[in-house]
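Target chain:
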Amino acid sequence: MSVSRKGVRFLKILKAQVITRLILIAVCIPFLLPFFWMLSTALKTLPQTVAYPPVLIPNPIVWDNFREAVLTIPFFTYFKNTSIYVGFSILGTIISCPLVAYGLSIVRWPGRDSLLILILATMMIPFPVTMIPLFVLFSKLGWINSYKPLIIPTFFGTPFFIFLLRQFFMTIPPSLSDAARIDGASELTIFTRVILPLCKPALGVVALFQFLGSWNNFLGPLIYLMEESKYPLSLGLQDYRSTHTVQWNLFMAASTLVVIPTVVIFFLTQRRIIEGIHLTGIKE
């Protein structure tokens, strides 16, 4: 009887898991269709991209579209601009946000929580409200048509990342920093020698989110950049599509190359993302 009961229980669990996975697959299909169509179009010949009925599976598969795409579109110029923008924005975020989060979590001082509420309140202000004032400000500073309006603000902290790191810092036992103070360590020493080594998962999440935000940023470069030679990939491909006769197979090949880094990085770091976000929600 016990064997049969275990078998029935195993079948129930297996059935539940199979049903759950089938539901998840069904939900994922609509989200995967645009990626499938982009990759399919990237591998088609030009006549197949406009054929009716649509050709789902390209025949023949034209891998040479990727080579022609990076030669036809100034892809490497856009990629260089994007790399510089993304690299410095991540650097600014990693430098500024942990410092502010440390001051709002580990260091005790009057008005700390009130300042945190004020910082979080800025997240409720829509970007269109500040878009024109920021443009006027950066214009008077002479920063228009450069990456300064996109990079320099990251060195002053991002409210969401500050909150994320602050929540993580709150999970660190205060006894660690108190012991370091008793030993005569300064706040900067405590921050660099005690706190930072413990917050690598959270810093990884922040760096990844900043990478995705900067890599996919379209509106910011559209507002502040005027010369095509300074465009990042997100804006450069759109500008090329609007000013040239588009060969959709080459355009989709270039779009695929733009998407691949974000997909690869996500799959390589998804465990750390989940771990970092999970730890920021735990408070002892």
Residues 73-280 form a domain with the MetI-like fold fold (CATH 1.10.3720.10).
